[in-house]
Specification:
140 residues, mainly beta, disordered C terminus, disordered N terminus, 9 strands
Length: 140
């Protein structure tokens, strides 16, 4: 999806209803890296809302070089630390929870930010955003 809004305006992305109602999520157009709707299984471990440690297999919804949006079964607090493991490469990344969506049947959408950028963690290459802000050309 190309972005036709000037920098500083907002873009609305639509996704299938099975991603916990991720239709109509508003995001600022100025981003550190391109993002992609990319579903992949990975392992997440950390502390749940109740303070107990957990380890679960989860799924990505949207990813970029600085983090992503995950669908988790456990409820997690903002600011909580997670360790994500890519099952294909066994690479681990520490990240911080920066967004919590509303819980739904499939889990809760959790936005995470890597402590250090990891552009190859997802198995994708993220290019620079074009001068027009066209995010469709950002992922190669």
């Amino acid at each position: 999806m190309g972005n036709t809004c000037p920098v500083g305006q907002f873009t609305v992305f639509a996704e299938e209803a099975d991603d916990c109602g991720m239709n109509g999520t508003t995001s600022p157009t100025h981003r550190r890296s391109g993002r992609a709707f990319h579903k992949m299984r990975l392992q997440a471990q950390g502390r749940a809302h109740n303070g107990k440690k957990f380890k679960e297999s989860c799924e990505t919804v949207v990813v970029n070089a600085h983090g992503g949006l995950l669908l988790l079964k456990h409820e997690i607090d903002n600011g909580e630390m997670l360790v994500l493991t890519n099952p294909e490469t066994l690479e681990e990344q520490e990240c911080r929870v920066v967004f919590q969506g509303e819980p739904c049947d499939r889990g809760q959408r959790i936005g995470v930010e890597f402590l250090t950028p990891a552009p190859h963690f997802w198995g994708l290459e993220f290019g620079e955003l074009s001068k027009q802000g066209d995010e469709a050309s950002a992922v190669h």
